[in-house]
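**Backbone shape codes:**
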Amino acid sequence: MSLVDGNRDLRGMQTEWHRLTVGEVTERLSVGAIVLWPIGATEQHGPHLATGFDHLAAERVVAAAAVRLLPEVLVLPNLAFGCSPHWVRLGGTVTLGHETLFHVMRDVCRSTARAGAGHLVIVNGHMGNVATGLAVLSEFVESELTVEFVSYWDLIDPQVLGQRVHDGAGVGHAGEFETSIGFAMGDLVRSDFVPDPPTTRPWTSDGPGHPAVRRAVDAARDTVGGVVGTASNATAALGTPLLEAAVDGLVAHCLAVRQAAGLTHPPSAPPTVGAKPT
């Protein structure tokens, strides 16, 4: 059995905020629990990858990290919708506007602060949320709540990512990186629909030397059928260590935050993050 059973570890301690009573939440926050909030999107991911991949991947990383941070951790309910207007024309996409997403994120952070939280880490799974997430941080410059924003792929050592992902698209979209993680998670990839390697390559990765000038994504011009990268390269054997690296990065960051605050944390065994929890 995996150490992660839903969001409850084998010691029977719950990590999810919404499954605890107000007294249990307040008690956990009173001893300095870090709050983790997975957010993502519901959008097309090519012909082969589940539309909920972004929020499900962020949720998996957070769930696996949370059991290693118990008891000083709480996980907010996953935000399954993000800013995805660039994918709407390809179907299967439900999007929020930037302004709506900003207000939702700001208000959740404010409410978390009012509940007694001192440190909130937003763990993002969708590239389209990054600009909005960074804008939200400016609302908490003088707040007693420290709010941080990180995309789970940025928790992976760049050298590890570069050594393992070879399609030249970086994180991409429904390409080698995301499809490998989908395989590792167990039920998000329709193998029969994984596209063949593209004959054209409209994408470029955000590696060294990449131009800093940005523009809006054009689904037809910048992707091949909604895919950025080479999905046919993907394997579960690649996705599992990528997930593990993201979890390790999140745990290390949260432990460093606790140490800086003078709080201690008991060690626990790392969970299995690849296969679906049983």
Observations:
- The chain has eight helices and four strands.
